Task: inverse folding
């Protein structure tokens, strides 16, 4: 039987800011590559400058009830406060329902009782210490065709600028992990691997007409010069997230949120990190950079398929920075080896096609 999928998407027409529905884009690209027919309530993700072709197109003759899977992301609710689609969980439905959740913080809309009716809630930033409802499964930002295309002409790893890119997109409300990295890790590694902390002017529209479309549709995250620097640089710092405490397990509660603020304000470090996933992590993998992050396993970070520290990326124990410095000084090929292996691993497990296949496996479709 031919599988059909229906997406609820936030409209992006008009001149104002738009919701970048990255997880929707990745899955729709992958599902189409697998031969699955995809539909949506509106046209979403333009494929040309004139906005005449879209990745997801609205067909008024196809409604959710005609499909096998119905997918809705947290953007639907958080971008404009839309209610749950009427009749989504009707008793006679034959489709399965999937919610996509890449929300930051701890006050997740997907923790509300009505989300227990979904067959699956796919959650990025999944942490081993957090108590999730039974229909939650770990997910990841992963790669889109846009990211793969923007990073495809990467320099050979042996010919790259011998620098570590370390420039966070947001400086306000900084993540406690990044604060710790700036205080303890970057000054130490700079003596072995120079740190490039320069920034691009991301708020200025690109010159290329289609790149201006992508710049707008991604909430100003797509910028040619940024991807050029990734393609030319040996390594990239992809640290992000907040140190959290193991207890209480309910990270959305008042006590947990208060403890997180105390940990951040005092500069404390714990062995658990929330909000660790990012576009930069996957951009770094795709560009063939040696990817630096915290040791995902040590800090309780769960992915559907987790990269191996020292093989696919450089996972840092911030309490034992000397270990990482020793790897860099003792093994002159360390950066080249993990850069090449990391890119291969990411394309194998987190290309749009791989992510879509993972979803179909979870749903047994």
Result:
């Amino acid at each position: 039987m031919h599988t059909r999928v229906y997406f609820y998407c936030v409209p992006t027409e008009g001149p104002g800011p738009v919701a970048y529905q990255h997880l929707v884009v990745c899955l729709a690209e992958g599902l189409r590559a697998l031969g699955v027919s995809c539909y949506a309530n509106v046209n979403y993700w333009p494929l040309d400058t004139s906005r005449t072709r879209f990745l997801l197109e609205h067909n008024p003759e196809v409604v959710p009830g005609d499909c096998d899977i119905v997918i809705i992301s947290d953007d639907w609710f958080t971008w404009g406060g839309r209610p749950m689609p009427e009749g989504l969980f009707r008793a006679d439905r034959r489709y399965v329902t999937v919610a996509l959740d890449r929300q930051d913080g701890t006050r997740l809309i997907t923790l509300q009782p009505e989300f227990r009716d979904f067959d699956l809630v796919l959650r990025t930033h999944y942490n081993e210490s957090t108590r999730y409802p039974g229909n939650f499964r770990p997910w990841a930002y992963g790669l889109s065709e846009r990211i793969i295309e923007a990073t495809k002409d990467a320099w050979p790893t042996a010919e790259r600028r011998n620098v570590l890119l370390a420039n966070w997109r947001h400086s306000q409300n900084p993540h406690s992990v990044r604060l710790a990295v700036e205080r303890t890790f970057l000054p130490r590694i700079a003596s072995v691997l120079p740190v490039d902390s320069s920034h691009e002017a991301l708020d200025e529209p690109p010159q290329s007409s289609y790149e201006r479309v992508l710049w707008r549709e991604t909430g100003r995250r797509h910028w040619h010069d940024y991807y050029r620097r990734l393609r030319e640089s040996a390594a990239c710092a992809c640290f992000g997230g907040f140190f959290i405490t193991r207890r209480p397990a309910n990270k959305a509660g008042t006590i947990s949120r208060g403890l997180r603020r105390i940990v951040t304000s005092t500069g404390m470090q714990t062995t658990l990190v929330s909000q660790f996933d990012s576009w930069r992590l996957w951009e770094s993998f795709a560009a063939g950079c040696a990817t630096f992050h915290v040791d995902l396993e040590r800090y309780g970070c769960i992915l559907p398929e987790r990269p191996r520290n020292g093989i696919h990326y450089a996972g840092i124990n911030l309490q034992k920075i000397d270990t990482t410095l020793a790897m860099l000084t003792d093994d002159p090929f360390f950066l080249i080896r993990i850069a090449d292996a990391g890119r291969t691993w990411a394309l194998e497990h987190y290309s749009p096609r791989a992510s879509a296949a993972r979803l179909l496996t979870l749903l047994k479709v």
In short: Residues 154-348 form a domain with the Rossmann fold fold (CATH 3.40.50).
